[in-house]
Design goal:
Distance between the termini: 32 Å
Number of helices: 12
Helix content: 55-70%
Number of strands: 0
Order of helices and strands: HHHHHHHHHHHH
CATH class of the largest domain: Mainly Alpha
CATH superfamily of the largest domain: Farnesyl Diphosphate Synthase
Largest sheet: none
Length: 309
C-alpha cells in the first residue's frame, strides 16, 4: 500500500504541480484516493502520447497509439473485473475502484477522450471541443466528486463543469504547442470565422487571430468556473477548500493567456510557487463563503451537458 501511495504522490507532484499543491488540503484518506486516481489518469495520458509525466512526448504513429489504447482498455477492464495488476497505475486504480465503487462507464469515458487523440479526431464545432473536454477532464471531475462522497446529480454536473473549465484553460494555454505537434482543439468553424485554414493555423502571421480565439475559450471557461463555485458548497469543508484553491490556480493561467497576448506562448504559462500559496490561502475564504451561503442551486443555463451524466 505504501509503495502505491508513494508512486501516486510522485505522479501528481511531477505531472501537475498546480493540482499537487491544492491536493495537500484534502484529508488524508481523500488525498490518497485522489492521488491514486490521478496516477492512473496521468499514466494513460502518457502512454497514448509517448511521454513521461506530461513531458517529452515522442512521435507515435496512429497504429501505435491505437495499439496502446487497446492495451489500456484491456487492463482497465481487468481491474474493473476485480483482477490485480502488476502495473502501479492500475494497482492504484484497483484500490480506488474498490474503495469508492467508481462506475466502469466513467473510466471508459476517460479512455474515449484518449481515443479521440489516438485517432487524431478533428473538432468542427464548439460542441465537439466541449465533448472532448468532458472526456479528458470533465469525467475526471465527476470521479473526483464521487471520491469526495458526492452522489447528487446536480453537484456531479458542476464537478464536470470544473473539469471542462480546466481543459478549456489548458487548450488556450497550449494552442501553439499543440499546433507544433499537429493538434488543434480550437473549433474549426471558429478558425473559419478568422479566415484561418486548419492546415495553416501554425503559421506565425495567424498568431494574433489564434490568441483572439484562445481568449474566447478563456471567457467561456469563466462560465464553467462560476458553475463549479456553486457546486463546491455541497462538498465537505476540506474538499471545498482544496477544490477552490485548484480553481483559483488554474484560472490564473487563463487570465495570463488573456492578459499577455501572443507573448504568453513564448514559454509555457504557469503560476509561480508564491502565487500558488496565495491562492491556497484565498481558496479557504472562497470555500467558506460558498458554504456559508449554500444557495439553492440555480439552473446551469447555457452550459454544455453530457447527455449520459
Amino acid at each position: 500500500m505504501e509503495d502505491i501511495s508513494a508512486y501516486s504522490q510522485q505522479s501528481i507532484r511531477q505531472g501537475s504541480k498546480s493540482f499537487a499543491k491544492a491536493a495537500m488540503l484534502f484529508d488524508r484518506d481523500t488525498r490518497d484516493s485522489v492521488m491514486m486516481l490521478y496516477a492512473w489518469c496521468r499514466h494513460c495520458d502518457d502512454v497514448i502520447d509517448g511521454q513521461t509525466l506530461g513531458h517529452h512526448a515522442q512521435e507515435l504513429s496512429r497504429p501505435e497509439k491505437e495499439a496502446r489504447l487497446q492495451a489500456l482498455q484491456r487492463e482497465t477492464a481487468r481491474v474493473c473485473d476485480g483482477h490485480s495488476s502488476e502495473i502501479p497505475a492500475f494497482a492504484a486504480l484497483g484500490r480506488v475502484v474498490r474503495r469508492h465503487d467508481l462506475p466502469r462507464r466513467q473510466l471508459f469515458e476517460l479512455l474515449e477522450g484518449f481515443a479521440m487523440d489516438a485517432r487524431e479526431q478533428r473538432f468542427q464545432t464548439l460542441d465537439d471541443t466541449l465533448l472532448y473536454c468532458y472526456h479528458v477532464a470533465g469525467v475526471v471531475g465527476v470521479m473526483m466528486a464521487r471520491i469526495m462522497g458526492v452522489r447528487d446529480a446536480q453537484v456531479m454536473h458542476r464537478a464536470a463543469d470544473l473539469g471542462i473549465a480546466f481543459q478549456l484553460t489548458n487548450i488556450a494555454r497550449d494552442v501553439r504547442d499543440d499546433l507544433r505537434i499537429g493538434r488543434c482543439y480550437l473549433p474549426e468553424d471558429w478558425l473559419a470565422r478568422q479566415a484561418v485554414a486548419p492546415a495553416q493555423a501554425a503559421l506565425p502571421h495567424h498568431l494574433p487571430a489564434l490568441h483572439g480565439l484562445a481568449c474566447e475559450l478563456v471567457e467561456l471557461a469563466e462560465q464553467y468556473y462560476a458553475s463549479a463555485r456553486i457546486g463546491m458548497a455541497q462538498l465537505p469543508w476540506r474538499c471545498a477548500w482544496a477544490i477552490a484553491s485548484a480553481l483559483l490556480i488554474y484560472r490564473d493561467i487563463g487570465l495570463r493567456v488573456r492578459a499577455e497576448g501572443t507573448a504568453v506562448w513564448e514559454q509555457r504559462a504557469s503560476v509561480s510557487g508564491r502565487r500558488k500559496l496565495v491562492r491556497l490561502f484565498q481558496g479557504g475564504f472562497v470555500a467558506a463563503h460558498a458554504m456559508a451561503r449554500r444557495p439553492v442551486q440555480p439552473p446551469r443555463n447555457g452550459l454544455w451537458t453530457h447527455p449520459d451524466l
